Amino acid sequence: MSVNINWNNLGFDYMNLPYRYRATWKNGAWEAGQLTQDNQITMSEGSPILHYGQGAFEGLKAYRTQSGAIQLFRPDQNAKRMQQSAEKLLMPAVPTEMFLDAVQQVVAANNEYVPPYGTGATLYVRPLLIGIGDNIGVNPAPEYLFTVFAMPVGPYFKGGMVPTRFVVADTFDRAAHYGTGQAKVGGNYAASLQAGKFAHENGFGDAIYLDPLAHRYIEEVGSANFFAITKDGTQLQTPKSPSILPSITKYSILALAKERFNLTPVETQIDIHDLDTFSEAGACGTAAVITPIQSITFEGHEHVFGDGTTGPLTQRLYNELTGIQFGDVTAPTGWVVPV
Ligand code: PLP
Ligand code: COI
Asked: How far is the CA of 149 from the centre of ligand 2 (A)?
């Protein structure tokens, strides 16, 4: 490798890599996309993304395997979710083939920046779809830009696979019941900044949200989904809610729990008062991977899971998931895609 990066010391930070993909939607159709070296975007000051948040993004990773090859994890699922987010905000869909081709092109063009196997680091790929063009009323944009850029990253939460403390943000909502919580759109994250700041300033990894109707059931973490293992060791539960992101990592873990660990996967309402019924809990997502939850603080009380160390099932799920992603463990059909 010719690039000079300390792969073992990466955080989750922006890096301006040589290539990104850009395509424009105009007059009802996508124009041919291409790679560019320019990381700046110029647009009309009236662009709906700037005023009214008409935009959606995705996050997926490219992994270097032991043989030096590069692979993606379930990129078709990201394509599908971006189409669902686009529909929610009245944006044109990026066809799956175009999405996958853009991701492939960006990873291949920046291939020196895909971290070496064994460092735990990965290339984080960020597709972004935004409404642009002259506009001032609350309307869908006249034009759209689809871009895909990437950067090498390390762990999202400090230390990576280490037990992390979370706090319930019970005076904040991330998304409304019938709002945009299911879509990966910027407004959900703007709405999470205050609670995230509170969590970080008080020594927590991030905030956990409760449902916006009853303020009683766990929704998700500001940057990841939530799962927990019942004390009898039979069920892996995750919250069921119309206002959380349908996490690709979560659905992968639910499938692995059932098919490889003989656990019953259950999507259900998880009452914040019932944390005692679980022996282990975790945050899961592309950036978060699987982060063990050491404790959840709610109304001034810190509930510690087990003895506060990484639970055995959380560890096994982590090993299985990352084993598949880095090519050391056989993947279910279609889950890994070579670059
Ligand atoms: N929930 C939120 C709010 C997220 O930002 C993410 C990250 O993408 C997730 C959940 C996890 O989703 P995925 O596993 O598809 O990355
Ligand atoms: C991801 O995991 O891809 C995310 O989008 C989380 C993020 C907020 C960094």
From this structure: 14
- pLDDT tens digits for range 118-156: 999 999 999 999 999 999 999 999 999 999 999 999 988
Distance CA 151, CA 110 (A): 9
Residue 183 clears pLDDT 80, i.e. is over it? yes
DSSP 51-106: HH--EEE--EEEEE-TTS-EEEESHHHHHHHHHHHHHHTT-PPPPHHHHHHHHHHH
Q: Which atom of ligand 2 is nearest to the CA of 12?
A: 9
**Is the distance from CB of 89 to CB of 82 less than 8 angstroms?**
no
**Shortest-distance Cα residue to atom 3 of ligand 1:** 223
Q: Could you report the per-residue pLDDT of 301-316, keeping only the tens digit for each? A: 999 999 999 999 999 9
- Residue showing tokens 């910027």: 186
Q: Is the CB of 160 under 6 A from ligand 2?
A: no
